[in-house]
Amino acid sequence: MWRRSASFILDKREDASSQQEPLTLSPSQITAPAMTETLRNPSTNVSAYYQTRAAHYGVITSDWLSQAQAAVGQHSVENEVRSSSSNAVDSGSGRPFSVIEEFNNWRKQPDLAEAVAAIRALAAVIRSSEATTMMELEIELKKASDSLKSWDTTSISLTAGCDLFMRYVTRTSALEYEDFNSAKSRLIERAEKFGEISCKARRIIAMLGQDFIFDGCTILVHGFSRVVLEVLKTAALNKKLFRVFCTEGRPDRCGLRLSNELAKLDVPVKLLIDSAVAYSMDEVDMVFVGADGVVESGGIINMMGTYQIALVAHSMNKPVYVAAESYKFARLYPLDQKDMAPALRPIDFGVPIPSKVEVETSARDYTPPQYLTLLFTDLGVLSPSVVSDELIQLYL
Amino acid sequence: MPDVHSLVNEFILKLKKRKVEGSQATARLAAVLLRSVISQQRIGYTNQAGALIDAVKAVGEQLVAANPVEIAVGNIVRRVLHIIRDEDLSLTTAAMAGLNLSAVSDDDDDDTSPDDHPVLSAAAVAAAARSTLRPPSLQSLLEDMPDSAAVPHTSSSGGDSEGKSKSADKNSRSRKLKHDVIEAVNELIQDIDTCHEQIAEQAVEHIHHNEVILTLGSSRTVLQFLCAAREKKRSFRVFVAEGAPRYQGHLLAKELVARGLQTTLITDSAIFAMISRVNMVIVGAHAVMANGGVIAPVGLNMVALAAQRHAVPFVVLAGSHKLCPLYPHNPEVLLNELRSPSELLDFGEFSDCMDFGSGSGSPLLHVVNPAFDYVPPKLVSLFITDTGGHNPSYMYRLIADYYSADDLVLQRKAAPST
């Protein structure tokens, strides 16, 4: 049973969202029954964020293979493409424009970060908007971003991306451009460049992070993070000699995927089951993790298990480094583990579980800042306390 | 030109032979040297800032390579580079503002700007220039950045903004740039000279009546800090740990007594025994790293641990020239230097133990005499710099003020060449 946290922040947030539902273009209004597959609000059962992740990074397991062999290989893929393109056509012609569909289309691209998809979707809102003043446009954008945020409350980078873009719109437009149309085109242009910015951010982080990897060190990695992979890749390309321990990363086994990628780079990898972290911590020189979101306290929200690894590392005096792009900085201040909307994710235990037995299906945890050593971001190498400073500067 | 060259070589030689030591002395000499490098550098009409930066960088690399332990030298090189960029920017924006006024008025007349380009130019250029200096932030993440400035490693020394402006009065501007830079370097030198007094001014805020202060070894900053409190009629006692193997604590104790302070001399090994009677630990530092960690004279980590054990505030005094923008994990940060064993042992008495001729060919007795300790940021309660008191986690902010991101990698080029 999910315990309500003592703080009522979350409760208030839920109230607010339920009140807003009729005002905003909530997904349920737009969703025609036929579109259940793509537009079903996923937060009831499984986190959409983790569904996407699973689709993008899922490791091919044996049961998946058997399923795939049973089906005709190409067919399903074609189907999906066709359905997504037909969605796009539909949204163009038939029904009014929907941010969520747009977002979903962008989200399908495996190389695109969630925040980038969000900002692209908001750019599409600007493009299709018929507003004639900045104020109208802002209101429209606000509605769109609210509906996006409420569609998937579990994705922190989606929220952070929306907030960042909204902040950019309100801060710059009014001051620098007198002409509404030029401001509009400017916003769209910047939004479309954001994908590039995010790639560049990853490269900067890789450059900064690889300095901390020294020859002969052993790095423990938890979860599959593109940034962490990029850091390790850069270090390997720079002829650093190091060894990586990958946790298995149950339930989606993303550690296996990371170890595959690292093996391709000829980096020595050892796989650990998630419970072997403390056992092997004495061999480890540093812990590297990515982050789903970096919160205002400087702590991170990341895949389940990060907290316990950070605790073990802290008690053994090993540094814990976090690699995260700065657009993952979110204005959240979780007070404890249960203080966030839980992102749920099914867990396959391989055997049937009796219905009386509860299963903890939350997909991520919160690691408080005192257990983190440094954050590698595209803003530089930061100590956790800098995060709040950056956020305050932006949202002041 | 040859004049500067010989000056540089002389200083490098001094650094290599450890003739000049101590962060303040080396920092000051480095700043003076760089000032003469700048003043003698002949600069062309275009890309003047670039030329200056290249010259300073070239000299800086040599200086840093000469004695990497003196982190202050590298800091000063970076500070001077930052000054050049800063002055160049302020000149460019001033020129831009002039150009812009005319450009905007033109636009108003014609009213033919379908593209946003001319309207943008002013803001965009200013933003671009700003982004080269200001550390990247969330605010500027979505703002327009020209590609050259966006990635710190590929930026071609900030000279491109210079090239863009084709103002007529280049001659006067080149002289102005140099003049401004030298002026600013002079200010920097003055800052280094007066940092002790500025730190000492804050002494009364931190030292109270009847307190017991512990310090280890000798630091001019600490001496002045304590004396300043004494002059303001605070009565307090000082415990001085002698600071083996150089025993500089003895000198400090002598000086403190000469100025009428109640002083107690203790051995380094008595620190844990005495710490429970201490109200505050005040020490100097060799360098302060970007994460708030301190490179300090050997023995201070022990003091810091003792202070933490007994919840005694551990205060570090450091002039701003000791702030280093690098992390202790960076490979170019040399954390330690091994000094001569003669400070520990008398060669005469131990000569037979260290006889290379007998036995296996290597002596049985080894003497290791490291000069520095690394104190992790979590053990430090407060930094007092010439700008005031700061938390260790705040160091990044000061560093962002003093250095520009492009200069941090100064030493990476130096490493392979040496």
Automatic annotation (TrEMBL), chain A:
Q: Which Pfam families match?
A: IF-2B
Q: Which domain of life is it from?
A: Eukaryota
InterPro entries, alphabetically? eIF2B_alpha/beta/delta (IPR051501), elF-2B_alpha_N (IPR042528), IF-2B-related (IPR000649), IF_2B-like_C (IPR042529), NagB/RpiA_transferase-like (IPR037171)
Say yes or no: keyword Ligase present. no
Do the record's keywords include NADP?
Answer: no
> Could you tell me which Gene3D superfamilies the record lists for this protein?
Translation initiation factor eif-2b, domain 2, Translation initiation factor eIF-2B, N-terminal domain
An example GO CC term for this entry is:
eukaryotic translation initiation factor 2B complex
Which controlled-vocabulary keywords does the entry list? Cytoplasm, Initiation factor, Protein biosynthesis
Against PANTHER family, the record matches this protein to:
TRANSLATION INITIATION FACTOR EIF-2B SUBUNIT ALPHA
What family, per the record? Belongs to the eIF-2B alpha/beta/delta subunits family.
Protein name as catalogued: Translation initiation factor eIF2B subunit alpha
Q: Which organism is it from?
A: Trapa natans
**Species classification:** Eukaryota, Viridiplantae, Streptophyta, Embryophyta, Tracheophyta
UniProtKB/TrEMBL annotation, chain B:
Extract one GO cellular component term from the record. cytosol
- Entry's Gene3D superfamilies? Translation initiation factor eif-2b, domain 2 (3.40.50.10470)
InterPro entries recorded: eIF2B_beta_subunit (IPR051855), IF-2B-related (IPR000649), IF_2B-like_C (IPR042529), NagB/RpiA_transferase-like (IPR037171)
> Which keywords does this Swiss-Prot/TrEMBL entry list?
Cytoplasm, Initiation factor, Protein biosynthesis
Q: In its keyword annotation, does this UniProt entry include Membrane?
A: no
Q: Where in the cell is it found?
A: Cytoplasm, Cytosol
Task: Using the UniProt record, give the first listed, main subcellular location.
Answer: cytoplasm
Which residue ranges are recorded for the region named Disordered? 147-177
Q: Name one GO molecular function term.
A: guanyl-nucleotide exchange factor activity
What ranges does the record list as Basic and acidic residues composition bias?
161-172
Q: Which residues form a coiled coil?
A: none
Read off the PANTHER family from this record. TRANSLATION INITIATION FACTOR EIF-2B SUBUNIT BETA
Q: Which family does it belong to?
A: Belongs to the eIF-2B alpha/beta/delta subunits family.
Q: How does it assemble?
A: Component of the translation initiation factor 2B (eIF2B) complex which is a heterodecamer of two sets of five different subunits: alpha, beta, gamma, delta and epsilon. Subunits alpha, beta and delta comprise a regulatory subcomplex and subunits epsilon and gamma comprise a catalytic subcomplex. Within the complex, the hexameric regulatory complex resides at the center, with the two heterodimeric catalytic subcomplexes bound on opposite sides.
Q: What is this protein called?
A: Translation initiation factor eIF2B subunit beta
Q: Which organism is it from?
A: Trapa natans (Water chestnut)
What lineage does the source organism belong to? Eukaryota, Viridiplantae, Streptophyta, Embryophyta, Tracheophyta
